[in-house]
Every structure is written in structure tokens, then in C-alpha cells.
Automatic annotation (TrEMBL):
Transmembrane segments: none annotated. GO terms for cellular component: cytosol. Residues 3-171 form the Glycerol-3-phosphate dehydrogenase NAD-dependent N-terminal domain. The active site is at residue 204. Belongs to the NAD-dependent glycerol-3-phosphate dehydrogenase family. It is an enzyme of class 1 (oxidoreductase). Its EC number is 1.1.1.8. It catalyses: sn-glycerol 3-phosphate + NAD(+) = dihydroxyacetone phosphate + NADH + H(+). NAD(+) binds at residues 8-13, 39, 96, 152, 268, 297, 299. This is Glycerol-3-phosphate dehydrogenase [NAD(+)]. Substrate binds at residues 119, 268-269. GO terms for biological process: carbohydrate metabolic process; glycerol-3-phosphate catabolic process.
């Protein structure tokens, strides 16, 4: 019998819990109970978040007003939450994943399988490391990914959307993940391209920040569409340079162009970047993130920095003018208006064509 634990309980983590909990009740090969590790915090009322989730069946801080399912059990103890599960779902902001893996290593079942819903990457001395690779390497388990056009609050309201599971070898495990997540309003398919799927989910956050700058400067729909088109080309080029095996078709799945569109229209990265541009870059992203998202985390600004480190280390900066502009604007080196002034840095069309 399969036992599921969710590592993470933010906005998307809570919606993932709701999706999964509705399915474990229906599928006889899964234990009904879904354990959810919660990074414990004290609410303004003085109560612990975990206790409130278990009493009300609601994550009052990160997904207020939505019942998770009575079979979701919030657990503030990471080691106890993971120890009995053979299916581990990782869904925290990417900057916390390395620390979590260190705490969990050696404390999980040897037959466990993982899936990462985390959009982001780590950059180490040896080079970039995708979060699914971090999980696989540190925990010694197979790890698939699930990415897609998935603004969590909309899925919580059971509005139809799609998602893509990416796997490398183990199709059987991927199908089990599809079964666990798929619902009538959440349509999941799988593709054998774990790197392509994860790169899409990671890199779209940089383009979402660019789209937010465009919105903040009130530049209009044509400019935003141009930024999305250029961003998609850079996403494809960067993914291929890092992982030549990435498939073209992956960019046409939910994890690719669909996620890029939704995130540039309605995501949190877009929203905070819009506020940054409206304030002329005078208020920091940290300050705006705390004020606007109230505990939820941005991934795009950090990812722009991480990708920029890779670009400089490999001598690729000139090939990615949009990624560079997002990094330079978000670190205050350039004003927000530089988001459409990067054409001088563009490589020649000949060079660019050979890359793309
Ligand atoms: N929210 C969405 O719409 C959405 C959709 C798809 C994918 N994602 C991705 O899912 C991942 C998780 O995002 P989310 O929306 O669930 O989270 P979130 O941004 O809503 O919440 C932040 C979470 O981080 C936790 N946290 C804070 N400090 C921590 C620490 N030191 N260690 C561990 N955890 C800590 C908080 O308790 C909270 O659960 C991200 O990579 C995000 O890009 C989000
Ligand atoms: O709100 P964002 O910008 O973190 O994006 C949310 C999801 O990744 C969209 O699929």
C-alpha cells in the first residue's frame, strides 16, 4: 500500500495536499492518510499553524478558505513526517530544499520515490544543479517532477488546468504520480524529459519578472507579448545548452508555453515585479515580497541571479540579453526601463540563429 507525504505546505503545497487527499480516498492502492510537513510558525492569534490546520482542516495562512480534506495530517516534525512514506512530494520554495534534503537524508524508506513540484535551481561550484537532481543525489532516490500552468489559488477553486509530469527512466513511477495528482479539473500527462520539464518551470519565473516590469511601466500588451516570445527563446536556448537531450515538444506541454503565459498574466513574480517597476526600483524586492505576499516566496529574482552566475561562468552572458536585463534590473544595476533596452547587447542574428 502506498503512503504519501508532502514536504511543504505553502500556497501550492496546500493545493497539492487537497488534490492528493481527494485521490488517496478513492484509490485502493493508497493509504487514505496524507501527511504534510509544515514549517511551523506562530500565528498572530498565538496558535501554532500546524494545530490550526489539524483543527480546521484549512491552511489559514497560505490557503485560507479552502478545506484540504480530513485525511490531511499536518506534522511540524520533518523526520517523523517522512519516515513511513514511500511517495515523497517536495513542494517548498527552492532556496530551502538543500537544507531539507540534508535533514531528511538517511531517514527515509529505501524504496521511496520522489517528485518535485519546486520551480528553481541551485548553483554550486561544480555548476548548476536542478532540484530533482539535488533530491536524487542527496536522498539516493528516483525523482520525477510535476510542473505546469498552475496558479495554485485557481486550482484550489477547482478551475480546470493541466500539468506535466517529467520523468527520466521509470515510466511506471511516473504513471503512479499521474494517478495520484489527476482529477477531473486537473489533467496530468507524463513526458520522458525530466530536465526539459524542470527547466521550463524554473526559467519561466525569470520571464514573469520581466513581464511584471512591463506591466509596472504600463507598456502594453504588445511589449509584454514580445518579452514572452524572447523569454521563451532564451528558455529553450539555455535549456538546450545545459541539457542537449531536452525535447522541443516539451515546450508545447503545459509545463512550457502554457505556464509561461499564465505566470506572465497572473503570477506572484509578475505582481511583485510590477510593484518594483511602479516604484522606480526604489523599494527592494525583499521589502515588496514581504508586504505583498505576506510569507509566500518569490522564485524569479533568485533564479535570475542563479542563472546569471551560470551565464558568467560559461561565457554565455551575451547570448541571453533578457535574462541578463532581469538580473541587472532586479539588483538595481539598471532601471526597470532597461527591460526593453537590451537590444544593444543582442548577439548577431547569425550567432543567435545558430544557438536557437
Ligand atoms: N503558488 C503557486 O501558485 C505555485 C504553483 C506552481 C508551483 N509553485 C512552486 O512551488 C514551490 C513552493 O511554493 P508555494 O507556493 O507552495 O510556497 P509559498 O511561497 O506559498 O510559501 C512559502 C513556504 O515556505 C515555508 N518556509 C518559510 N521559511 C522556511 C524555511 N526556512 N524552511 C522551509 N520552509 C520555509 C513557509 O512556511 C511556506 O510554507 C515554489 O518553487 C513555487 O515556485 C507555486
Ligand atoms: O505565482 P508565481 O509567479 O510563483 O507562479 C505560480 C506558478 O508557477 C504558475 O504555474
Amino acid at each position: 500500500m502506498n503512503k504519501v507525504t508532502i514536504v511543504g505546505s505553502g500556497n501550492w503545497g496546500s493545493v497539492a495536499a487537497k488534490l492528493i487527499a481527494s485521490n488517496t480516498l478513492k484509490l485502493s492502492s493508497f493509504h487514505d492518510e496524507v501527511r504534510m510537513w509544515v514549517f511551523e510558525e506562530t500565528l498572530p492569534t498565538g496558535e501554532k499553524l500546524t494545530e490550526v490546520i489539524n483543527q480546521t482542516n484549512e491552511n489559514v495562512k497560505y490557503l485560507p478558505g479552502v478545506k484540504l480534506g480530513k485525511n490531511v495530517v499536518a506534522d511540524p516534525d520533518l523526520e517523523s513526517a517522512v519516515k513511513d512514506a514511500n511517495m515523497l512530494v517536495f513542494v517548498t520554495p527552492h532556496q530551502f530544499m538543500e537544507g531539507i534534503c540534508k535533514r531528511v537524508a538517511g531517514k527515509i524508506r529505501t524504496d521511496a520515490e520522489g517528485i518535485s513540484l519546486v520551480k528553481g535551481m541551485e548553483v554550486k561550484k561544480e555548476g548548476p544543479c536542478m532540484i530533482s537532481t539535488l533530491i536524487s543525489n542527496q536522498l539516493g532516490i528516483n525523482c520525477s517532477v510535476l510542473m505546469g500552468a498552475n496558479i495554485a489559488n485557481e486550482i484550489a477553486m477547482e478551475k480546470f488546468s493541466e500539468a506535466t509530469v517529467g520523468y527520466s527512466q521509470n515510466k511506471e513511477a511516473a504513471e503512479k504520480w499521474v494517478q495520484l495528482f489527476n482529477t477531473p479539473y486537473f489533467n496530468v500527462t507524463s513526458v520522458q524529459d525530466v530536465e526539459g520539464v524542470e527547466m521550463c518551470g524554473t526559467l519561466k519565473n525569470i520571464v514573469a519578472v520581466a513581464a511584471g516590469f512591463v506591466d509596472g511601466l504600463e507598456m502594453g500588451n504588445n511589449t509584454k507579448a514580445a518579452i514572452m516570445r524572447i523569454g521563451l527563446k532564451e528558455m529553450i536556448a539555455f535549456s538546450r545548452l545545459l541539457f542537449p537531450s531536452v525535447k522541443d515538444s516539451t515546450f508545447f506541454e503545459s509545463c512550457g508555453v502554457a505556464d509561461l503565459i499564465t505566470t506572465c498574466m497572473g503570477g506572484r513574480n509578475r505582481k511583485v515585479a510590477e510593484a518594483y517597476a511602479k516604484n522606480g526600483g526604489k523599494r527592494s524586492f525583499e521589502e515588496l515580497e514581504a508586504e505583498i505576499l505576506r510569507g509566500q516566496k518569490l522564485q524569479g529574482v533568485l533564479t535570475a541571479k542563479e542563472v546569471y552566475e551560470v551565464l558568467t561562468a560559461r561565457g554565455w552572458v551575451e547570448l541571453f540579453p533578457l535574462f541578463r536585463a532581469v538580473y541587472e534590473i532586479s539588483t538595481g544595476v539598471q532601471p526597470p526601463s532597461a527591460i526593453v533596452e537590451f537590444s544593444n547587447n543582442k548577439p548577431s542574428s547569425h550567432h543567435r540563429q545558430s544557438m536557437l
